[in-house]
Amino acid sequence: MVLARVDGTVVATRKADRLEGLKLLLVRVLDPKGKPTGPSFVAADAVGAGPGEVVLCAQGSSSRLTPLTENRPVDAVIVGIVDEVEVEGAVTYAKGAA
Amino acid sequence: MVLARVDGTVVATRKADRLEGLKLLLVRVLDPKGKPTGPSFVAADAVGAGPGEVVLCAQGSSSRLTPLTENRPVDAVIVGIVDEVEVEGAVTYAKGAA
Amino acid sequence: MVLARVDGTVVATRKADRLEGLKLLLVRVLDPKGKPTGPSFVAADAVGAGPGEVVLCAQGSSSRLTPLTENRPVDAVIVGIVDEVEVEGAVTYAKGAA
Amino acid sequence: MVLARVDGTVVATRKADRLEGLKLLLVRVLDPKGKPTGPSFVAADAVGAGPGEVVLCAQGSSSRLTPLTENRPVDAVIVGIVDEVEVEGAVTYAKGAA
Amino acid sequence: MVLARVDGTVVATRKADRLEGLKLLLVRVLDPKGKPTGPSFVAADAVGAGPGEVVLCAQGSSSRLTPLTENRPVDAVIVGIVDEVEVEGAVTYAKGAA
């Protein structure tokens, strides 16, 4: 999984039937300190993530292993909202901290 | 999934039987503002996308999770036509806007 | 899928049983104009591709979705021989053209 | 699989149900000498790895092939704790060596 | 698949049960001339490859498509020992040649 930040939303009216009802969020990959370093991509939301939140994304076939995304043509899904990242004993990211 | 722009078409007369009847489009990965930044690849079209449109592409095994692409040897599929991308509260791409 | 050019062949006498009988070709990823830009890799041939031909390659689990490659340990397969690539209304590659 | 070092932990209280009970570790890809060279990512722990340990990570659908991770939306799992890496006859990494 | 050279071995005493009995080799991706150009990774050995040999590696879910690796948490497997690579009519690598 990767750490990512929810940056926005993607709206697609015309889409594959099996995407109906999924919230599609634009996310960007973060380093362990919460700094954007990687590419942006679009993930289905399985946990009710909001804008700016740091989340955990699963990619590939594992994206279909949540009840919301089962059998759907999605290759990335948000599976958790990150509360804290700790690296070598120090907290490098904490939700709510400035 | 990734945001991508439909740049063209690929014609292959001699091909695997299970590719018959699929429209194969050349797409290029975009950043959230709709600027081409990533590589070009070929995706099967599951939604009737047209040239120049900004689309949502699923890759990997999830490409086979639409009725059109089921059991076919495709590793990328267009699953939606993007109407709008919003980043941090601002619309960065809107279909039809110049 | 990616556009690729058949550059050569790979011979492996000692191999997994399930690779027996497959032709293994060395291919290199091309940009939409047919210029080699990407990495080289080895793909199973499902369409009878020849040296120098521009082909369409599927990768990942979808590589096993042709009758020839079913249940085999291959992660790339040639699924089509490209006749023409058209980008923004102009032909950027045509088979047989110099 | 890749060699990686366990750098930290990720805590996510709100998450997909099927992630419950999994320990999520932050790991970073290493070169054969144990030097961090690759990206950081988050892996489920299937072997009880501790901070600073060099581990073996499997990615993609194979991440679900341990009893702990079966049917869960994870795309990376720690499947071994590395005791020794040997390159061209010389030990380049040994657990416990300074 | 990719061409790779067997550079060494990885020993992991504590590991997922389903990895038991597999030989884990450190390999490095080669270009068509046999020059190391890509990253190093760890692959299960399904063909009895030895140090220094040029091999063919399959990655992803296809890694589990050999009798030795079936249902195991591996994402890379050596499926062949390369005897010869030919590019544009010229042999660029031959086993045993200096």
In short:
Chain A has strands spanning 2-11, 14-15, 24-30, 36-45, 54-59, 76-81, 84-87, 90-94. Chain A is an all-beta fold and 98 residues long. Chain A has a single domain (2-94), classed as EutN/Ccml (OB fold (Dihydrolipoamide Acetyltransferase, E2P)), CATH 2.40.50.220.
**Rg result of chain A:** 14 Å
Provide the spatial order of strands within the biggest beta sheet of chain A: 1-3-4-6-5
How much beta of chain A, percentage-wise? over 45%
List the secondary-structure elements of chain A in sequence, H or E: EEEEEEEE
Number of DSSP E strands of chain A: 8
What is the CATH homology-level superfamily of chain A?
EutN/Ccml
Largest sheet of chain A: 5 strands, mixed, barrel
| Number of discrete domains of chain A | 1
**Overall pLDDT score of chain A:** 96
| CATH architecture label of chain A | Beta Barrel
Regarding quaternary structure, what we see is homopentamer
Which consecutive residue ranges of chain A, at least 5 long each, have pLDDT under 50? none
Q: Which structural category fits the helices and strands of chain A?
A: mainly beta
- How helical, in percent, are the residues of chain A? under 10%
| Outline type of chain A | elongated
Question: And the CATH topology of chain A?
Answer: OB fold (Dihydrolipoamide Acetyltransferase, E2P)
Terminal residue distance of chain A:
24 Å
Query: What pair of chains forms the biggest interface?
Result: A-B, 32 and 32 residues
